[in-house]
Write a structure and sequence with these properties.
homodimer; alpha+beta; Creatine Amidinohydrolase, Chain A, domain 1; Creatine Amidinohydrolase; 2 domains; 5-stranded antiparallel beta sheet
C-alpha cells in the first residue's frame, strides 16, 4: 500500500477550537460581531471538512456550522456539531433560532463572488459586511504542530520525487514524459491530486519540468518561471520540448498531503553546464546559506529579500535575479500551507516580522534569456532560534 | 514525441471575431453598452490567451484587449491587438483614450470576487454593473468546428486511458495505484494537466478510480459519485482502498486537450458481478441507447432527463438512479467545453432546446449503498439530425 495513503489525520477538535478562538480575537480587534465563512480552504481550516456549508463564528461562544451538502460527510470529518440546512435561504430563520446576530459581519471578500454576495446581502439586509480575509490569512500563516506534521509528510513526497527524477531523466525525452512519470510517482505516494492557490484565476499544475530556455518563459502568474505548458489554455508547466545535454533542467514540484502543500525546485544537468550558469546556481546556494544562517522569528521579510538582492548584485547577477527584463517578481519566497500563496511573502515591501510556526518556500532563481534558469527552492519552518528545513537537500546541483 | 504534444492550434482570428460579435448581439438584447471580462476561461475564449488582462467589448466595433502581464505571451497567443497596461488603475485614462464608454457595463458577476469588483466600481464610479455571465455561458455552449476538433482530440486521450485501464487493472492494487498509472498515461498523451470548473470552490481531480462501495461516497459537489479521495481536504477521487474481485470498479476520467475537456465513465469488473448490479448497468445502457436514438437539436433537456427517470422507474431502479437517499442530483448530463460544468445541463428543469454544436456528457449511473456504483458516461455533440459520439465505446461492461 502506498505510504501515507489513508493514514491521514483528521483535524482534532482542540485544533479547531484554538483556530476559532484566534479568529474571535481578531474579530474583537476589528469590531466584527459575526463571521460567515464560505471558501473551501477556510472551511477546511476552521471545520476540518469541505462541504457546501456556512460557518458562522460569533465574537464570543461557539462556532455554528450549517451544512447543506454533504451532511453525512461533514459529520464524519468535522469535530464540530453540524446542523443540517436545506439551502442558503433557510439561514435567516436558523440564525434567529441559534441566537446568531451581528451588525458588522466579516466575510472572505477576496474570494466570494459578487452574485453570491448579493444574494447574502438580500437575505441579511441589515448587515454591514467587512472583509475578514486579511485576519484569516494572518491566522493561517502560523502553523501548529499538527499542521507541520502534515507539511513534513508532504515534504517527504517532494524528496522522493526528486530522487526519482535523478534516476529517470534522460537526454531526448520530452519535458512532458518526465512530468508524467513524476506526477505518477507523487500520486502513488499519496499526493492529494490538486495543489490549491487562493483567488479567482489562480491555479497551478503539480509539476514543471523545464529544459533549457523553456524555463525563461513567463506568464500571467506572479512567478519568476512558468514554462510553456501544453497549450495556451494552461500556459504553465511542462511542454513537448525535448530535454537536451549541457543545459539546466529545472524541476519545480508541488506536493500536497492531507491538504498541505510543499513546493521545491531542483536543477538537473545531463553533461556539463556553462560556467556562468553553474556560477549563478552557486550564488543561489550562497543566498540560501546566508538566509538559513540569519533567519529566525522576528526577522523582517523585506530584509531577507534585500539580502538576496544584495548578494545577486555583488555577483553582477541583478539582471537575472527573479526574472529578467520587465518580468521580475518582487519577492523571493512565499508562504505555504493549505494553499501555495499563503503568508508570509518574502517580498520587497513586507515589514511584518516572521513568527515561529510560519512556513515558507524560499526560491532564489536566475533567469538567462535564450539559455534557461538555475536556482534552488526549499521550504522552511520558522523557529525562534532559526529555520528548520522541510526536506532533504544535498546542496549540490545534480549532474547526470 | 507524445501525440498531440505541441501540435495544438491557436485560436484563429475569425473564430475570436465571431465570438465577440455573438457577445455584442447579446449585449444589444440586454441593453449593455460595454463588457469587461476578467475570468481566465472567458478570456481564453474571447482572446485566445490567458493573461492578467482586461478585455473590453463595446456594443459596436472591435474589442480592446489591455494586458498587464504577460504582454509578450499575449501577443504570441492572441490574434487580437494587445495594448500594454501598467495596472488596473491606469484603465480609466485608457478607456477615455480608446473611446470606450458605457453607462451599463456587463461583468462576470458569478465569478468576480467582491474585493476586485469594489475596486473596479471605485475606478469607474458612474457605471451601472450588470451580470453578463448568463450570456457568456449561452454563447460558449455552442461549439464551433475548431472547438469540436479540440474536443475530439481530448476524447482520444479518454479512449486510450480506458484501453490502458483494461490492461493494468489487477486485484489487490489500490485505487490510487491505478489512478497514478492512468494519470501518467493521459499526461504523456498531451493532457493539459488541469480540468477546470467554473465558480468559487469548484474543483476536480482528473480521474476517479472507485472500487466497490467507494463509489457510493458523495461530497459537497453536485455530482452523483465522488469517492473518498486521499484526504478530507480534497474529498473526491481515488483513495488507498484496495481493488477487489466481483465488484464494480468505476473509473471516471476527465481529459483536457488545448483547453477542452471531455469526461467519461466506464465500469470494470474482475471476475463476476452480482445480477442486480449487472442488470442496472444494462439499464444504463438502455437509457444511453434510448437517448442516442431520440436526441437531436430542438429536443428539450428536461425531456431527456425525464426519459432516463422513466426507464429507471420501469426497472424499479428509481432509488438508485443518480444518487441514493437524500443525495440524488437533479441532472443526468452536463455541458462540456473549456470547463466541466458548462451548458446545457440535462436536468429536471431545463426547457431550453438543445442546439446544433452543443456538447454534453451524459451519465446514467446507479448507486447501491454498501456495494458500489454502475453506469456509463459518454460525451456527445448535438447535431441537427442526432447525436455524434466523441469517443469509442464498445457498449459492453469490461470484464477482466
Amino acid at each position: 500500500m502506498p505510504r501515507g495513503a489513508g493514514t491521514f489525520e483528521l483535524t482534532p477538535l482542540e485544533e479547531i477550537k484554538r483556530r476559532v478562538r484566534e479568529l474571535q480575537n481578531r474579530m474583537e480587534e476589528k469590531g466584527i460581531d459575526l463571521a460567515l465563512l464560505l471558501q473551501n480552504v477556510d472551511l477546511f481550516y476552521f471545520t476540518g471538512t469541505i462541504q457546501k456549508s456556512y460557518l458562522f463564528v460569533p465574537r464570543e461562544g461557539e462556532a455554528t456550522y450549517f451544512v447543506e451538502k454533504n451532511y453525512e460527510r461533514a459529520v464524519m470529518e468535522s469535530p464540530l456539531r453540524c446542523i443540517k440546512v436545506a439551502s442558503l435561504d433557510a439561514l435567516p430563520n436558523l440564525l434567529c433560532e441559534y441566537g446568531l446576530k451581528g451588525k458588522r459581519v466579516g466575510m472572505e471578500l477576496d474570494v466570494v463572488p459578487v452574485s453570491l454576495y448579493k444574494k447574502i446581502r438580500n437575505l441579511f439586509g441589515e448587515w454591514e459586511v467587512l472583509s475578514i480575509s486579511t485576519e484569516i490569512k494572518r491566522i493561517r500563516s502560523i502553523k501548529s504542530d499538527f499542521e507541520i506534521r502534515q507539511i513534513k509528510r508532504s515534504g517527504e513526497i517532494v524528496t522522493e520525487v526528486f530522487s526519482k527524477a535523478k534516476v529517470c531523466l534522460r537526454e531526448g525525452m520530452s519535458e512532458l514524459e518526465l512530468d508524467a512519470i513524476l506526477t505518477s510517482l507523487g500520486r502513488s505516494l499519496g499526493h492529494q491530486g490538486l495543489v490549491r492557490m487562493r483567488g479567482c484565476n489562480q491555479e497551478m499544475v503539480n509539476i514543471y519540468v523545464l529544459a533549457g530556455d523553456s524555463a525563461t518563459m513567463t506568464s500571467c502568474w506572479d512567478t519568476p518561471i512558468s514554462g510553456y505548458g501544453m497549450t495556451p489554455a494552461i500556459a504553465q508547466g511542462s511542454s513537448a520540448r525535448i530535454v537536451g545535454r549541457d543545459q539546466p533542467i529545472l524541476i519545480d514540484y508541488g506536493a500536497g498531503y492531507n491538504g498541505y502543500v510543499t513546493d521545491e525546485t531542483r536543477v538537473f544537468v545531463i553533461g556539463r553546464l556553462k560556467d556562468h550558469l553553474e556560477r549563478a546556481w552557486r550564488v543561489a546556494l550562497d543566498i540560501i546559506e546566508e538566509v538559513e544562517s540569519c533567519t529566525r522569528a522576528g526577522v523582517l521579510p523585506f530584509a531577507i529579500y534585500e539580502r538576496g538582492q544584495e548578494i545577486a548584485r555583488k555577483e553582477g547577477l541583478t539582471p537575472n535575479f527573479m526574472g529578467h527584463g520587465e518580468e521580475k517578481v518582487a519577492f523571493v519566497g512565499h508562504g505555504l500551507g493549505l494553499e501555495l500563496n499563503e503568508w508570509p511573502i518574502i517580498s520587497k515591501g513586507n515589514r511584518e516580522p516572521l513568527q515561529s510556526g510560519m512556513v515558507f518556500a524560499f526560491e532564489p532563481k536566475f533567469i538567462f534569456p535564450g539559455e534557461g534558469a538555475v536556482g534552488i527552492e526549499l521550504d522552511y519552518i520558522v523557529r525562534d532560534d532559526g529555520l528548520e528545513r522541510v526536506t532533504q537537500f544535498p546542496k549540490e546541483m545534480i549532474f547526470l
